[in-house]
Amino acid sequence: MSDAQRISNGADYLESLRGRDLKVYLLGERVEHPVEHPIIRPSINAMAATYELAVEEPELATAWSPLIGDRVNRFTHVTTCAEDVVLQNRMQRRLGQLTGTCFQRCVGMDAFNSLYSVTHEIDQRHGTDYHRRLVEFIRLVQRGNLVVGGAMTDPKGDRGAGPSGQQDPDLYLRVVERRADGLVLRGAKAHQTGCINSHWIVVMPTIRLRPEDRDWAVVAAIPVDDPGLSFICGRQSCDTRSAEGGEIDAGNARFAGQEALIIVDDVFVPWERIFMDGETEFAAPLVERFTAYHRRSYVCKTGVGDVLIGAAAAIAELNGCGRASHVRDKLVEMTHLNETIYAAGMAASHESIRRPAGNWEPHDLLANVCKHNVTRFPYELARLAQDLAGGLLATCPSERDLASPATGPLLEKYLVGRPGATAEQRMRFVRLIENLTLGRNAVGYLVESLHGAGSPQAQRIQIARQMELEAKVAMARRLAGIRDGDGG
Amino acid sequence: MSDAQRISNGADYLESLRGRDLKVYLLGERVEHPVEHPIIRPSINAMAATYELAVEEPELATAWSPLIGDRVNRFTHVTTCAEDVVLQNRMQRRLGQLTGTCFQRCVGMDAFNSLYSVTHEIDQRHGTDYHRRLVEFIRLVQRGNLVVGGAMTDPKGDRGAGPSGQQDPDLYLRVVERRADGLVLRGAKAHQTGCINSHWIVVMPTIRLRPEDRDWAVVAAIPVDDPGLSFICGRQSCDTRSAEGGEIDAGNARFAGQEALIIVDDVFVPWERIFMDGETEFAAPLVERFTAYHRRSYVCKTGVGDVLIGAAAAIAELNGCGRASHVRDKLVEMTHLNETIYAAGMAASHESIRRPAGNWEPHDLLANVCKHNVTRFPYELARLAQDLAGGLLATCPSERDLASPATGPLLEKYLVGRPGATAEQRMRFVRLIENLTLGRNAVGYLVESLHGAGSPQAQRIQIARQMELEAKVAMARRLAGIRDGDGG
Amino acid sequence: MSDAQRISNGADYLESLRGRDLKVYLLGERVEHPVEHPIIRPSINAMAATYELAVEEPELATAWSPLIGDRVNRFTHVTTCAEDVVLQNRMQRRLGQLTGTCFQRCVGMDAFNSLYSVTHEIDQRHGTDYHRRLVEFIRLVQRGNLVVGGAMTDPKGDRGAGPSGQQDPDLYLRVVERRADGLVLRGAKAHQTGCINSHWIVVMPTIRLRPEDRDWAVVAAIPVDDPGLSFICGRQSCDTRSAEGGEIDAGNARFAGQEALIIVDDVFVPWERIFMDGETEFAAPLVERFTAYHRRSYVCKTGVGDVLIGAAAAIAELNGCGRASHVRDKLVEMTHLNETIYAAGMAASHESIRRPAGNWEPHDLLANVCKHNVTRFPYELARLAQDLAGGLLATCPSERDLASPATGPLLEKYLVGRPGATAEQRMRFVRLIENLTLGRNAVGYLVESLHGAGSPQAQRIQIARQMELEAKVAMARRLAGIRDGDGG
Amino acid sequence: MSDAQRISNGADYLESLRGRDLKVYLLGERVEHPVEHPIIRPSINAMAATYELAVEEPELATAWSPLIGDRVNRFTHVTTCAEDVVLQNRMQRRLGQLTGTCFQRCVGMDAFNSLYSVTHEIDQRHGTDYHRRLVEFIRLVQRGNLVVGGAMTDPKGDRGAGPSGQQDPDLYLRVVERRADGLVLRGAKAHQTGCINSHWIVVMPTIRLRPEDRDWAVVAAIPVDDPGLSFICGRQSCDTRSAEGGEIDAGNARFAGQEALIIVDDVFVPWERIFMDGETEFAAPLVERFTAYHRRSYVCKTGVGDVLIGAAAAIAELNGCGRASHVRDKLVEMTHLNETIYAAGMAASHESIRRPAGNWEPHDLLANVCKHNVTRFPYELARLAQDLAGGLLATCPSERDLASPATGPLLEKYLVGRPGATAEQRMRFVRLIENLTLGRNAVGYLVESLHGAGSPQAQRIQIARQMELEAKVAMARRLAGIRDGDGG
Questions:
Q1: What values do phi and psi take at C94, rounded to 5?
Q2: Would you tell me which of B199, B428, C8, D331 could form a disulfide with B146, CB atoms 3.0–4.6 Å apart?
Q3: Which chain D positions have a beta carbon within 8 Å of C260's beta carbon?
């Protein structure tokens, strides 16, 4: 790929998304130009920030890739040392601070890295050719600086049954036809973060599979503009405020996340883009490795938490109570919780292990611990921020009221804070806190923190698997003075 | 007042609100017909439920009032025994269950009841005539079955300064002119729950006042259609969904809360409607008694919590995991927290004391404990409900997508749950949970739970005042064997 | 029974315990004179406080009993109205404040009250004579002002199996012989609070029984000095400090709790003292009613909590930081949690229902909620008290060091606090906090708070039974707009 | 120093402590032979484990020291890279697992490392010679493999006043005489972990000092057998059980912690052992750096937590409920909390920075976050362990009862668990859990976790200093759309 085709910055990236004939649906309508759509655009801006950061802070957001012998955007990079894993976390926190939302490019990064070792191990066992194909695909992505969405979550239907136990076999994405030149896939991927603004998606199994689930054990890369794909965007709290034309009420006018349901309607994928086909025993390792990366990728939420702490401190100060001891104490508590999340992510990354394929993977138990804290602490941060915001959070009039000759002067008179603090300033911070705790980015900061990369119970299962009770019981037996051979 | 003028049910009530020339502003526009406005109407429906319940369950929602010698809506009733206070709580929980939102009629009830004893005591000390005036006003309200909004919260400006310390004296509502026939008032009341759908508002001071704050020590009843009043409605998360024309995406299509900023622009109030004027030393008792009632009125949130628990149980069951032990355990935890709130409210009401004026008032410390739990537990209930809702909460397409020929069949295929659970059913419960935890009624269930009737720190101050440390230190001294007279 | 035989006060009570030939074992030795034993005596003192309170505050600690037509100690009283149930809670909190420990007389009170209705209902169904026998027994107890221990918990052996599934059938107390004049019982009762200082014990089944468990479905009253009983006292943290001869290091030198394992070795009980025999279907109601009373009896812990709050406030003040905002805030938090427990207990008692037998029984769900909070909040109170105590809690030298000429002056010099605060004062409060959070009374304040009246999971099961999910789902369905007949 | 003098293992170490004429007081008596004293010995055993581990796992517990060109015990090592800091944490967790208590050697290690950079910086500013002296002292310690106690905490008297504000100036350790050959010191150090079993102590200031506090700005190394030192041991919960002669009731018969009050009675220290004298402005950096090391050293508690988790799992299994879902879930929660602590410590260590002196120091904010979690989570782990232990924790008879012919067979019959689980096994685990949560090692696991290395409020102050509110407010301003120069 020539440099001319390489995406160099945010503007290039936006251009790369234009003119694609995607089947995108939002609020019951087909969206012809997603880049220009006011509700979708903020999610594209967030992704664009991953390109801009690589320009502005290349040490942080790019890496030297031995695969193509060049610096690449870190989101396309396969880790070559523990420090690479750590730097992902630093970059994620920074982007959380810059966008205040989910910037959507981690899933692909984490998918590459987990597939890198899994394909290597499938090949070792089965003599297959997946790893080489994957490496070729990664080179293409690195050279083009492309966005790849990792698509893992199937619709699942009845949670009490597995893929082959559903009334409709399509409720987990599967192979419906095996052809000489490739596979035909059918199904859907749900809750897909950042796909309309991607160039490729990689579909992967979502759960441990049994031998009878062979048709569901497939990994494949599909170009986003494949005509067999449809994208039905999810509604987000307060989504239509982005289309109202103002800039205050949205809270964060520039940035937002994006989630869609992807329909895969008998899409053909050539062998060169197939990275698993039927090796059911590798579904569980793939899921576990992906989640080891991805659960600690939620360190991004500490960047969003930084914004929330800043907004809470700002509104308290504007209200004239920035020095109150209980206000300071709440900001300390928010910081403590936020850094507790960060610490677990960083510990997981620092404690990375090297896989035989050569890539580095975070510490699984600590990564789960990180994510499990993410399912709890942002809610308490949100509660504390709402506390510091004051009642105006619930009752703030609209920016149109502020602009209106009838009501604007009244708001300017009555919504002031401490001397010098204007109504507009207070409204802007209150709206940002609303955005992060109830509004459009609460979807990312709260609900996605719960369910993304696996719901809380998924982490508990994984923690249970790794809690090494036998070793701990042995420690206790020794100190309790119970001798070996004693059955207790 | 003839029976013809008495509001007998919800339909009467709606009719009573029509044709009033209120200055109501919403989203930058003057609203000519609030009853017919799709965003405002749900909040009127919620208030109407207080009339309907009185018809359907009169034992619960009416009481016999000695003031007029007739049964009256309990929301207009002055408590005559502890059981009356307890029944308020039972009624509040029931209405929370029926509406899933704030039904907005408690503030007036709590204002009456606290003013009842405070005016009595002012008269005792100062020889004033406030109590008789108040009783006359209550009779008018009871006979008409009217809605009265209690308006306490001033805009406050710089929280570091009091009424007389603000750059603009109007930041706390005040007397700007004393005339032979009454007072002229100026200022605003913020965060006003349910005022556009009220018939009267009663303004009251919001904080402890000092002698120099005399002009701010005023209590007065003002008809809502006084031409000097303006109402600027607050935006709520997802408010415009109520105007989209569907019924699923709103989550709770029929019911919502309402908060507005009331501007009081040199409104004249005749003496007969003045219940305090300058008795600054009674501002603190009024606030404390009002909050004793109102902090335990937040038992209503346990009714909303019941709806949330029900919705969480329903969606888990539709997903096919209703029997999972962790799901059951989360429902138990939600119930436990919800009932802990309820218990504290009920204990406060059962432990009511009789004021010399004859009315009964809840136990102050326990009422504060109730409200303080309300500032915490609904957030955990919300988190657990979002956990049980699953990722669809963040990504659910719109009802228009479900109705669209292009996408409807895809959603019906891919968003099913356990056998028999349709996409629409799942969408409806997910939207209801969104409504209660992120959307329009999250404003009431979460933010209002934090700040209504006083922010968390206000309860901590009140708990501190009543924690009787000296008595507790004496108990400890005795058991520690420290003798009296020993200075420790 | 003549008045001469009635126990009138604490001194009488102590005398009533002397000269009994009980088989009491402690620390591997038979204890001949339990009343005089320095480790056992504090637990007898605590029980004696229930007699003293009846003298000092008769309105609180006595009641008029229609059974004998006289005032009786409230601990022997069968509730005749909701207020009686509420007054139990008030008395329990007061005794917790006075003793700082478990005063051990509630189990019998709660056993009587639950048996009162259950025996009535067995008689209704089976034509038995249990209720009359029980009433006669209660009269005897009331006339003599006796202490009755309610003994419910069987040793249980394998928790994965029931009574008839154990390798050793004696692991649940059972009937081993049916004679014409009565029954012979064998087994043990574990974790028995206050039995050595009782006059009678009433044994009861501990779990739901099935038809095959008939021999285990027995309720009987046994005099404590029956020669077939043995009592093996449990060790408590720091128990031997009570025998060291000083008064500081014990923390609370006068009062403590008591727990023992009771062995029932083929004890004969005449029919007149048998209140259930084989009616297995009534075991579950008995357990549920007993725990409804007893779980809310844990309100006593709020009295102990008051002592702990007082001690924490005192030590902080002696340290010179009583005014620090974080210290005040921690005391507020302790109070808030303590009152939250109290509120749930009081709500359960106020919301009592009348059983057909005529006695009043607390609200089951709220009683469970009360106890469930007891399994959590005292731990946080303990943590906060230890925080306020400062590091001296971990490192305080002994009172003998204070008395020693070699070290006493050094401690008096270096362990002072704020001006006027002596080393001894600080040591006394630190030891009291140690007593309540790590030492002898931590057994009652923490471990018993967890496991007494059922471990946390037992409350969760009971809450689950009463959480009325169907009704709550119906509320949610209605607001979500799902029509009846729609299967979701 | 010849190898003959070097302490090579635990036995050598014990020998090194014998025959010293220390003034040690315990329970009011002078202790002539601390090594042989049954209450003191377990704390010496714990320290000995630090020698044994160096023999058994040299990679973990030794390091190559450039200061003497040899491998040294890691506890005497000055960090030369971030990995050295990380390895301290790994070693600490391992020793926590092996001893189930505080092994007391970290304070000296952390004192060395913080003094290493601080002395370097004092010398840079003032041209003093402290760093060379310190290095010489460290060489002596490394060559001899000696134990050094870092003594920081002064008695403090009135917490509302600083050193020069106390009524008695000795309440903070100070210089009372400056001589040509050195300094004379007077005062005390409180809460001193592991001093009787040390060879040297290093005294250091405990708080930020002002210019007028010059006499209190002193750092000095003093041999433990200096005749001017006295040691008054603190009592610990259940301490005398170690002297009862058995091995079950102590819970952990071999290992315990140790805390004492050290009296420094006009001790002369030659200049060569003085590392700070009057440079008040360096007191705060010394405290901050020491606490940066030491707050993350509390990772040791995760090793103790591992033992507690193991004991809880073991007793639940013996009780026959090891497979119950709520039991598994509680073990998962314990693990999650334990690993959250570990993660923050490890993150702090991995994120170490290099000081100009050449040593590496952990990330200050993350170290504080680690310790702050240590002040919370062990309490919840303890609560959960007590939950899993069952009621026997509160009522377990003594080991003498088990050994007694009268009661032993009864206990063996009635205290069995699931088939094969004997009474003794259950008693041993219950006692270990008691030891860790109420007994002797609860002092270390709970109280020391609260107060060691600074009480919770100390961490909050440090977190407040580092929370970078301005930067976070700027992030929020940017996303809220507030332009630079706008004063809000």
A1: -60, -45
A2: B199
A3: 395
